[in-house]
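Structure first, sequence second, as always.
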């Protein structure tokens, strides 16, 4: 793939005594949504955390927009233009929504234009702007988590299961916001268990098993081939 914003080459990652990633090779195309799929426990979250630098790669390379970032600190990777939205949301419950956003805008004040785009994507955040983040619903907290990653200019977003446990109406809002991010030129690597969301959002997909990428291609090919889904993930998700 000639225009990949992110390349992961033969990456191995250990957590304590456990060897989790076994030579991951993955390319994330620029300006597209790439779904990272697979059963629980196969290494998807570890892959995102290795890319952002929370866990170091023992072997292999991570190349972001042409630069080798394998040895960079997490803060340096963030400054390079990578935003990370963890599954546990990573918000400060005792601070207001506004204060959470101010902290996320590390390079300076959150400008009005960016704030308004965030409000357009997630209207509840305008309503609860000065409310403690801990009082938000689960869906609203997830909106804030993604909004925090949008507080600065990012070229790549790593997002871990943004729709997990959310009501269908909130899932729809989340999907719409992620489409808007893509329209603004962002590239997205998205871990998602909801296959209906994956089909609706994904341009490309990569399937993991046992710490490796076992298939990669266009999302449409995976979404329309029940036999391929069953072979790769153990069950047909055609009805999902």
């Amino acid at each position: 793939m000639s225009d990949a914003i992110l390349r992961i080459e033969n990456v191995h990652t250990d957590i304590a005594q456990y060897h989790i990633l076994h030579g991951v090779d993955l390319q994330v195309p620029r300006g597209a949504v790439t779904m990272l799929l697979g059963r629980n426990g196969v290494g998807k979250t570890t892959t995102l955390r290795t890319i952002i630098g929370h866990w170091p790669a023992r072997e292999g390379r991570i190349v972001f927009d042409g630069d080798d970032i394998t040895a960079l600190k997490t803060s340096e990777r963030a400054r390079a233009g990578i935003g990370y939205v963890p599954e546990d949301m990573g918000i400060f419950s005792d601070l207001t929504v506004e204060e959470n956003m101010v902290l996320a805008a590390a390079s300076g004040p959150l400008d009005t234009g960016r704030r308004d785009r965030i409000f357009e994507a997630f209207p509840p955040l305008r309503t609860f702007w000065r409310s403690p983040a801990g009082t938000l619903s689960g869906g609203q907290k997830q909106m804030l988590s993604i909004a925090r990653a949008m507080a600065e200019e990012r070229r790549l977003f790593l997002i871990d299961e943004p729709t997990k446990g959310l009501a269908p109406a909130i899932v729809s809002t989340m999907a719409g916001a992620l489409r808007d991010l893509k329209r603004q030129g962002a590239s997205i690597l998205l871990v998602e268990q909801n296959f209906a969301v994956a089909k609706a959002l994904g341009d490309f997909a990569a399937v993991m098993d046992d710490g490796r990428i076992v298939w990669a291609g266009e999302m449409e090919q995976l979404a329309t081939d029940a036999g391929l889904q069953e072979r790769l993930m153990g069950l047909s998700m055609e009805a999902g």
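Margin note: Strands lie at 4-15, 18-29, 33-37, 57-64, 67-68, 82-85, 156-160, 187-191, 204-209, 212-218.
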